[in-house]
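Good morning N.,

You mentioned wanting to compare the apo and holo forms, so I went ahead and generated the holo version with tricarbonodiimidic diamide. This is what I fed in:
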Amino acid sequence: MPHVSVQAEPYPFEFDPTATALLVIDMQRDFVEPGGFGEMLGNDVTPLRRAIAPTRRVLEAVRARGMMVIHTREGHRPDLSDLPPTKKARGHLKTGIGDAGPMGRVLIRGEPGHDIVPELAPRPGEPVIDKPGKGSFYATDLELILRERGIRSLIVCGVTTEVCVHTTVREANDRGFECLVLQDCVASYFPEFQDAAIKMIKAQGGIFGWVSDSATLLRALDGVGAKTA
Ligand code: TIU
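and this is what came out, ligand included:
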């Protein structure tokens, strides 16, 4: 497959599609639908839903080219054995992690709220990484999976920009993976955090990675033929 160059900031992002994975972070009902963990934290989920449609377009384009797709989900075991009491206590929530909510037990694996939204549902064969923290590398086998597949670059979508996306991009960057964050495919409950978090990635010569958008990536992928087989 040809090498791809995407217009990005602070300078073009170059990648080999066979060594690149799309990483879709925590596009779960608990964060992007009313009645989930995000709303229980006091947030309006509307801004997060804007990331769904562009992420879907990127997902389809990447799948059509046979590139690797990985999904993550934040959540905990039903017995809460992987939930630090400090995380459970944070925010003094009336209904918090592990408690019964409108979409089942909040942020618990196997519950409806923990599911990835139907628009971005994983396909068979696409790894789904269940993570107990904000970062996708901490206490997961993501790094092992990436190294085994020879992945060196990540195209990053998901929520929320300053929390799980940033933590993951920082973890990936320290491990030597190059990250391209698509600014319309990541979202925050707070417009000012979205703006600052995006600036922080690309500042200082791309201290954590590169920033572009879905339309620019899709144009660059046009030059990479869809897989026919
Ligand atoms: N609260 C918030 O902004 N985010 C999270 O709790 N998790 C993720 O970002 N996935």
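Residues 191-206 form the longest helix (16 residues).

Happy to go through it together on a call whenever suits you.

Best,
F.
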